[in-house]
Design goal:
Chain lengths: 100, 172
Amino acid sequence: MVPAGALLGLSAILFAIGLVGFLGRRNIIIMLVSLEIMLNAVNVNFVAFGYHLHEDHGQILALFVIAVAAAEAAIGLGLVIALARNRPDVRIEHLTELKW
Amino acid sequence: METLAGQAAFYYLATVSIASAGLAVTRANPIHSMLWVLALFLHVAGIFVLVGAQFLAAVQVIVYAGAILVFYLFFVMLLDLPSETAGRRFGAHWPLATAAGAAFALLLVRWHQPGLAIPTPAATTDAAPPPHVAAVGTMLFTEFALPFEVVSLVLLVAIVGAVVVARRKTAS
């Protein structure tokens, strides 16, 4: 019904958009959300291959990716809370203590 | 006829997904970004339904759109929105970021090759296959039982870690 190549193309575009958001934006929460967009693109890729090869394993892997994304959101936003307690904003250009 | 409707649905869902993702990473207001990401997640769930991953679509809506996104929205509320929206959105290195993204988008040139054509329907068997969700659940609790348990451990560690990281340091 749907060519698998079209699904893979959609996945590539979504991953590219997420990558641009992660590398380019300066708000740390938008960066984390871009990470979620990239993980979603990877899920589309897994499901596309599962669909193409008539396998359900792709969906299982995508489920695990969603679980890890939830863990990543909890840790990442915990770090944002710890940052926001020490400084007025969470903009990435103000986090220069580790810069050489 | 059904094929045509399926293709139309797929191209609608794909177009809206790409547009929502693009808007999500370019809007100045983080709340607007989150709402566009919500649209993206719901449309990706629609794509999962279209390719026969119904359980994954439900998980996508419940966990991603329902839990993770609400979590992000809650954190956006903690920020100082006026000062966030006033500053510049992209860093000075945004051309490099765009180049990296374009490199990934270049993978598109291969999307139409014959090996990735419309999959042939699975060979019809005499016995009716089990319902789809039952098949996924059975696999999750037999073949993938150990990874499943490990993921629960990962989530537990993440919860404890988030509490430890975000806790206010008290003078003991």
